[in-house]
Amino acid sequence: MSDGQKIRTSVDIYGQQFKIVGEETKSHMRHVASIVDDKMREINEKNPQLDINKLAVLTAVNVVHDYLKLKEEYEKLEHQLREKD
């Protein structure tokens, strides 16, 4: 959404309910929450002894790592496109 209107929605992440407020659609916010939930469950499968706080931090670290790798790839592709012009 581009009109600055705040949208509120409830999401479930790792068995806990959260209210999220943003300018994106409810569908988008639910999709983001679903990705976080999936990542937390993936990490928990490999490290079932982690408490919820450590699990949340490791999830954040993994998601930021994925983001940075995608950003680097995007910038590399952007650079290649500029070189062709």
Automatic annotation (TrEMBL):
Known partners and oligomeric status: Homodimer. Interacts with FtsZ.
Taxonomic lineage from the root: Bacteria, Bacillati, Bacillota, Bacilli, Bacillales
Keywords for the protein's UniProt record, in alphabetical order: Cell cycle, Cell division, Coiled coil, Cytoplasm, Septation
Function description: Activator of cell division through the inhibition of FtsZ GTPase activity, therefore promoting FtsZ assembly into bundles of protofilaments necessary for the formation of the division Z ring. It is recruited early at mid-cell but it is not essential for cell division.
Similarity-based family: Belongs to the ZapA family. Type 2 subfamily.
Record keyword Cell division present: yes
Residue intervals passing through the bilayer: none
GO biological process, one term: FtsZ-dependent cytokinesis
Name of protein: Cell division protein ZapA
Major location category of this protein: cytoplasm
Location(s), subcellular: Cytoplasm
GO cellular component: cell division site; cell septum; cytosol; plasma membrane
